[in-house]
């Protein structure tokens, strides 16, 4: 059970393209998301934005616990920093404690080779410039076929399909959102390692409002609030 939790939560903490298209997020200051399991609030994943003339920095703080019979069976506490210049990712660092075990990523963009150089807790090597650090603030996640894990640095492949436009309720308010399905590209993966996520995007402001999946319980990331200048 713990291995299943680990795989899917690490995926939820981020998926990922090297371009953030920061102009789409001009003026945004923060995005706060609540994390639920089986309808119970268990934590948060919050993003804070700093805009420069041609730069963007995004800090993330994520923390939650899963308890069973008053015992903590899974916990995440982490923070990260993404740096973009002219809309392109130039560096990324993260430190995450998963069940008190540290995982990390240090990434730099190499202009000479046009690749990312990655030093992570589970991967050390290069990734092509069309990969994206996984982040739920970045709607470009829905346009790419591979992502770099923000927790360990591993590179994964994915398929994203547009399902349709739906009216859904979030925090007692109705929204018209675009629904997408994100699944593993490799169907030969063991069932407990396959990606199977429903994602709802507000196309008017390019913000992801909801992420839902079912794996040893119903998990949901739900936008709580955001601020734009």
Structure description:
With about 230 residues, the protein is mainly β. The chain has a domain of about 160 residues. Helices cover about 5% and strands about 60% of the residues. A 15-stranded mixed beta sheet has the order 8-7-6-5-4-3-2-1-15-14-13-12-11-10-9, covered by helices on one side. It is globular. The N terminus is likely disordered.
Q: What is the 3D shape?
A: globular
Helix content: under 10%
Q: Quick one: how many beta strands?
A: 15
Spans of at least 5 consecutive residues whose pLDDT stays below 50 are: 2-18
SSE order, as H and E? Answer: HEEEEEEEEEEEEEEE
Largest sheet: 15 strands, mixed
Work out the strand percent: over 45%
Mean pLDDT: 86
Query: Distance between termini?
Result: 43 Å
Quickly count the helices.
Answer: 1
CA gyration radius, whole angstroms: 17 Å
Q: Give the helix/strand class.
A: mainly beta
Strands side by side in the biggest sheet:
8-7-6-5-4-3-2-1-15-14-13-12-11-10-9
